[in-house]
Amino acid sequence: MSTASTALPASSIPLFTTVSAFRQWRNVVRREGKSVGYVPTMGALHEGHMSLIRRSLAENDLTVASIFVNPAQFAPHEDLATYPRTLPRDLEVLEAQIYTIPGSALTRTPSAVFIPTVQEMYPSGINQDTAAQRGTFVEVKAYGDQMEGKSRPTFFRGVATVVTKLFNAIEPTNAYFGQKDIQQCLVLKRLVRDLLLSHPDPEHLHIVPTARDPVDNLALSSRNAYLSPEGRAVAPVLFQALQIAKESYLEGQPKGVCVERATQHILSVASQSTMASEIRLDYIEFNESDTLEPWAPERRRIATEPPVILSGALWVGKTRLIDNLILGNIEDIHI
Amino acid sequence: MSTASTALPASSIPLFTTVSAFRQWRNVVRREGKSVGYVPTMGALHEGHMSLIRRSLAENDLTVASIFVNPAQFAPHEDLATYPRTLPRDLEVLEAQIYTIPGSALTRTPSAVFIPTVQEMYPSGINQDTAAQRGTFVEVKAYGDQMEGKSRPTFFRGVATVVTKLFNAIEPTNAYFGQKDIQQCLVLKRLVRDLLLSHPDPEHLHIVPTARDPVDNLALSSRNAYLSPEGRAVAPVLFQALQIAKESYLEGQPKGVCVERATQHILSVASQSTMASEIRLDYIEFNESDTLEPWAPERRRIATEPPVILSGALWVGKTRLIDNLILGNIEDIHI
Asked: Does residue A97 form part of some domain?
């Protein structure tokens, strides 16, 4: 039932390029009563994606990944054209994921990869210029205005739109997203709840902890491939700055002090780099995890206060890095 | 499995007020392999709604209606508060619909009515002021700007949002909408296609011809209940004006002449009414059925040209009436 076209690399995992072909597969496994875990990706797969795949393999009968670089989430000036596209390697990496069910000799590997065209995902077409767009778009108002949304005003609209479509096409039992994109995770949880989606329902949209470089804790990202050696050396400063802000927060310092200490650390490290002039902090923010509004310190006096999200974005040359820490327990986030 | 609360009228049809209760029912009938026809309504049911119900009864194993007055499609100055709410009578009317399967003694009646609360449909809440809204909204760009969209700028956003939710909750095999709201039908067909919905898929979203008063052809509408006797007497002028515009179109007259003749008819009839000063034409428009852009006469020279939609809106006192004619074959509309 694979619809692998000749343009696709060889793969031992069935590849689907159209919604209708995927749906035939999906209907068969539905009748078999099998659960389907889903990991949406833009390709350029790294260990962060693999942590999502492994979690899905462990928790579902079948696992589906999608690879689709979504034009609607890139602004006209952003890196759509240069975003890394490494499909042959991505498929090899997926094929190599083998999960052994504990206490048995049974194994699971990814069951299907959905690789749609832009036309398949955007039947009305898609224009990078939002003013010229036609067709259906999904927006999560007020939850996408802060943090990443402030720097990338149409980003979450593009994400919400494509993920609504992907969820409708895949109809997953469970879906897995990386904590690195925490605001995306929370916006999508809100979307699933608001649109009354059942595939997945809000409780089955899972946030998986950020995968990091084991030595210097840099959050893994497909965009790290853009970094020069000098840029890669300085990149962990964002995580370090967030840690400093977290320590200040736990000391009970006010927000201004927390952010100031973190910013000073970045300035200090940057000043010692040959790239000093190209390192620019976009933001460090504290936000409420249930509303994404700015941290309201008075809420912390309540015993059942929701966690706070501490997040940041940093330009290193032409590469924009993001990272975040959750101040509290990720299971206590209810949005 | 009915979750009828004590506040609901008695009904022989199972009533569901929550998505989760409805889903239990839906999952049972899915396992039984039964098709589900769906008629979304805002209540105040009339013969137009019944024509949709009868079509659904004829074409599906089971028929579900919903009754929900959707706040998001009313602008703050519009008639949300006064929109007719006639639930006990609506349920009686639905109970009375009995379809006999041709050539048999078997009958079908509506199987379920979904009557959600505003909170159930808008988990993030809903504010009439769009600037203050939070949560997820669906927009069909460029298809909702003309005709009704020009006069009611946030109307189709409200419709697209609630229907996306209702389709996700009901998961119908077939859905039925009245041609009176032709732009709504076409915007929703575009939405279903763009969002890759399978419940229903675009081919199973059906447009049912407008039900009319058998004597004077007034399009049936819940809002007709607002009309005074004088207003009701003059209301058929909109249909007459559209007929005049259609005849001019078929004669080959240019758009300006068609609209002018229709407008003159309305002015002439209005001038003889005691309500003359309260009768105001909002618009008469010709639009392409596949793009909803203004009628492009040069396309009519093509043998396979799509139909043209001739539509209008008229204020009679505080009541806004709409109507439309399709110039061509409704089956040739592909959006």
From this structure: yes
